[in-house]
C-alpha cells in the first residue's frame, strides 16, 4: 500500500512541476509563448484551466503527503528516539581494537626511549 501511494505521490510531483512550468508568467511561460488567442482556448481560458489543474494537483499532492505520513507513523516502532537516549552503547573489546591495523594496536613501534631520534621523526612500522 505504501509503495502505491509513494508512486502516485511521485507522479503527482512530476505533473505539478510540469503544470507550473506551463503557466504564463510575467516574462511569458515555457508552453504559452505569446501569440494570439486563435486556438481552441483563449489565453484567459487556458490560464484558468491551468490554474484549476495546479490547485487540483497541489491538493492531491498534499493529501498523498499526509497519507504517507500516516502510513509511516503506523508502521514505525512504538517508542520514541528520545526514549533510547539513556541507553549505553555496546562495549568494544580491547583485543579487537588491538588487532585492527592502523588503530594503534601494536602495529607501530613506540618512540625510542634513549632520545636517538629527533622528536619530529616519523614512527616506522614494525618489521615482522
UniProtKB/TrEMBL annotation:
Residues 93-128 are annotated as: Disordered. It is found in: Cell membrane. One of its GO terms (biological process) is protein secretion. It holds the Pfam family SecG. GO terms for molecular function: protein-transporting ATPase activity. It is a multi-pass membrane protein. Keywords: Cell membrane, Membrane, Protein transport, Translocation, Transmembrane, Transmembrane helix, Transport. The chain crosses the membrane at residues 53-73. InterPro entries: SecG. It comes from the Bacteria. GO terms for cellular component: plasma membrane. Involved in protein export. Participates in an early event of protein translocation. Belongs to the SecG family. This is Protein-export membrane protein SecG. It comes from Mesobaculum littorinae.
Amino acid at each position: 500500500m505504501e509503495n502505491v501511494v509513494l508512486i502516485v505521490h511521485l507522479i503527482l510531483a512530476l505533473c505539478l512541476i510540469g503544470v507550473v512550468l506551463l503557466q504564463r508568467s510575467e516574462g511569458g511561460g515555457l508552453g504559452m509563448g505569446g501569440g494570439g488567442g486563435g486556438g481552441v482556448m483563449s489565453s484567459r481560458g487556458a490560464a484558468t484551466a491551468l490554474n484549476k489543474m495546479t490547485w487540483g494537483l497541489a491538493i492531491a499532492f498534499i493529501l498523498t503527503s499526509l497519507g504517507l505520513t500516516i502510513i509511516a507513523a503506523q508502521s514505525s516502532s512504538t517508542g520514541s528516539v528520545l526514549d533510547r537516549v539513556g541507553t549505553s552503547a555496546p562495549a568494544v573489546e580491547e583485543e579487537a581494537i588491538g588487532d585492527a591495523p592502523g588503530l594503534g594496536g601494536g602495529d607501530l613501534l613506540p618512540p625510542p626511549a634513549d632520545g636517538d631520534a629527533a622528536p619530529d621523526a616519523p614512527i616506522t612500522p614494525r618489521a615482522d
